[in-house]
Amino acid sequence: MTDIPPNKAQRALHLHRELDKVWADLPGLRGFFTSVNHGTIGLRFMATAFVFFAIGGVLAMMIRAQLATRQGAFLSSELYNQIFTMHGSIMMFLFAIPLLEGLALWLLPKILGARDMAFPRLSALGYFCYLFGGTTIVLSLIFGVAPDGGWFMYVPLSDKTYTPGVNADVWLLGVTFVEISAMAAAVEITVTILRCRAAYMPLTKMPLMAWYLLGTAAMMLIGFPPLILGSILLELQRAFDWPFFDITRGGDPLLWQHLFWLFGHPEVYIIFLPAAGALSTIIPVLSRTKILGYGAIVAAILGLVFLSFGLWVHHMFTVGIPHMALAFFSAASALVAVPTAVQVFAWIGTMYEGRVQFRLPMLYIIGFFATFVLGGLTGVMLAMVPFNWQAHDTAFVTAHLHYVLVGGFVFPMLAAVTWWMPMISGRWRVAGLGESAFWLIFIGFHGTFFIMHLTGLLGMPRRIDAYPDNPEWEILNLVSSIFGMIQAAGFALFAFDMVMQWLFGRRSWRNPWRAPTLDWAMPLPAPSYNFASLPGPVHDNATAILPLAKGEGLLPGAPRGHRETLVVEPASGKPDHIAVLASNTALPVLTSLAIGSFFGLMLAGLYWLTPIGIVATLVMAWRWGTIMGVDYDPPWIEVAPLLTLPTHFSVTNTLAYTGCVALLVADGTVFASLLFGLGFLNVVAPNWPAPETGWATGMMGLMALAAFLVILAATFAGRKAATSRDPRVWTRVGFVCAVLGLILMAGLATGLDDPRRHAGDALRAVMLGYVAVHAIVVAMLALRSDRDARTGRVGPHRRGAIPAWQLFQRFLLFTATISLTVVVTQEVL
Amino acid sequence: MRRGPRKTSARIWICGWGLVFSMTLLTLLLGSALWVGERMIAQGDNVIRVQAHASRYNWQFTQPAPDGRLVTTDNILFVPAGQPFEVAIHSDDVIHSFWVPRLGGKMDAIPGHVNLHRLQADQPGQYAGQSAEFSGPGYRDMRFTLVAYDPADPPKALTDAPLPKALP
How far is A59 from chain B (nearest CA, A)? Predict the structure, then answer.
């Protein structure tokens, strides 16, 4: 069954020219704005992330300069607050997350044996949202209006009363804008791993890196929505005075802490998992053996994904939660060390069993062990409630988190960069520079942060800008500052090494590390199309480089002039169809500008103009769909002798469909977080329930019921359209129903109590708004389906946008039923 | 191929060290931490209760004098040495955190909530205290002093305090 005969060998150079013409970026500046190729976008993500890392690093040096002496005469308190807030925010949101996204985008198709990510345009959209959002955040620093409430943005400090300026809005809007790229990447990574693998590569045999990134993407899909919802709620409070976190009107500042740490703790593992993936990839090769305990590591990844969502409260041990509840979260925090221990011992065991070669990436891996294990141990200390009460918010925690993040993320990522650099640049490094950079970073890091544990135990709190009455902290801080500068010099040398390698390194030979994975089954530097022909059961590792280049693998060349890649069934890897991917287009950058215009208008406080941004975004989203169908039945494609597959136009279970499911998982988590917020305030917040008003319950109940029935009717129409030969009637019915539903909801909204009155009223308005936003999306999809049906894009096998419409329609029905019930019953109860 | 020995070593590394070793250690640690924590939390029994009210950037304390009168002070807190006391911590602007490092852990002051914190100063003397939750530009100066006095010799600040006008 899995025997696919090889294709006839061709001339490799001929294939290369044919493919490169189809896959290459446009030349010059146009290429920058129109590229959708995962190789280009991934590298760009990583390069941009390192630029932000440098900016964050400069801020860190300013913090160290300020703390070097106890008078701290270097910065004012106001500026110091902006700088430490920005240091944390930049490192988290503009460096760590985008760097791992970039690595995933760049690496995944190569290591899985595909030509591109599942959604090339989405990669580009994510990049521009990141670039524009990140630039805005950094520019705010230059204008002196940077966020200054800490990277955790606790309310009430970050609300309008205590932060009247635009500072907090920069954070909330900027980070949310950037997080579009995280959500895009999460959807894309999930779909690519599940469906764009080499033919017959089962889930259970895929490279560990893919398992790690699948875990990461799953956590991002569930971890980011609480933060996005929290940011929206806080921005609504700041902009329109909806009191979600205002204690006097039924809100509670603790709600923000819960939403933030529901994201914030998984975030640590989101950052750690891809780094661990790089370790699991590099360690066995440089130990010249196989990884020990593949199955145990996969189990550990799944365990981490699951457990990391049960830990968030350990950031809140001092907010006054009952001790028994703390005990539960303390136990979970300790338990999460077990899957980490399993992985660490698997890596040590692998090195013990093999013969370790101390080449540059291995140095960084040794650096990882020395650093991360210490960070893990102090993490276990902090998981213990009595110790946490003492060390919380002191320099001890600063030391701990840097050990975990630099040890668990930066060192492995530097190992990964040096590891894959020959594939990126096609060159081998200049001897000596890399080693010097490593030792400077390593010594600088431990000199800075090891001593900081002691500073914290001596009682120095975080986030103070001077300590005139505590001379005993001074020498410790001075030592930290000096070593901090050494560390900075090390990072500068690392960057210099990269540039030197790029410019002056000698050409690298193929597969210089003699690695087994498919990413090395290609010439260096990696070509725009990755593989001239795709790997399959015959060519399933790096030794297949020549047959693949000669077109003996699957789907050789680009004879039809399209960007084509293979789509497989999720579990088995059985070939399913051919996806024809998007080519160079400016649509992503224009769409991100449209979205950005909305965020920009919000930031400027021009709320009455924001509908322009929304309409612009909808228009761009509409154009996004126009290239997604064809009005004829495309012929099947011969992938290999005796294996002919349809293109994605003629199947329903497309990449886009899987992507919609992944997106709805995230969307559902937003909704669940909203319900959590409602439940939390109901139970915990004082000043509940809201004072009674004369609400026209009967009238409103009828209106809600009518809205529900209309949505039900639209769902029925969607179902009919999915199977009908001529769905034109049903698509139109669906569209009309969605519009009717929106009108009814607008009517319902006019009857609601003023959201400014009470948090309950505000949450009710948000729930209605959530349903309305989805009704707009569904109306757009119904209209798109209708257009597809009327322009011949729907046939017996070609279904156009109908499957996606049906999926969203069902989701709308589900969430609307709950929301409308809540909106009505909240008044009755 | 070294298939045989590989299997055994995987079991030692992953089950032995990764699971058994780490879980044993963590269980012991967790058990002892819970036991210590349980002794530290507020019991709600009949001990001296003081109020700590945090606002930017000041601590206001209300504590009982030996004769039972309530005395309000700014940035200085008097408690008798050698016996446990509970601090009722609250705030009405932003979040702060009550911390006397030499006596014990910290507890947050959150608008709309009152948190109880149980501490004890064994020896009479002065103990430095500070807020441990970032609260804005004046954060670093939000310090206070806890004075533990010998119950036989209460300080003048408590005994001579004028009668407060109104009590909550």
Answer: 18
